[in-house]
Design goal:
By secondary structure, this protein is an alpha+beta fold. The protein has a two-stranded parallel sheet with strand order 1-2. β1, α2 and β2 form a beta-alpha-beta unit. The radius of gyration is 14 Å and the shape is globular. It has one domain.
Length: 78
Amino acid sequence: MPEILKGIEKLQQLNFKNIKINAVLLKGINDDEKDFIEWSNFIKNNEIDFRYIELMQTGDSWITLKNIMCQQKYLLII
């Protein structure tokens, strides 16, 4: 997470406009509540267009079911 935030801050320092980020929540990979809160606060305090996008199954991928996250948990945090 710190590397991502530093990269975005660098883009802002270089006067990049309209920074847009899409992300997918994956269980066991980027679903830590502490990181989610840090990320949420960063988005609120910076001019960034951000959205979570749905994890979509492609083919017979077992990873989809293994890593799918319920949005309800994170809506309560926000």
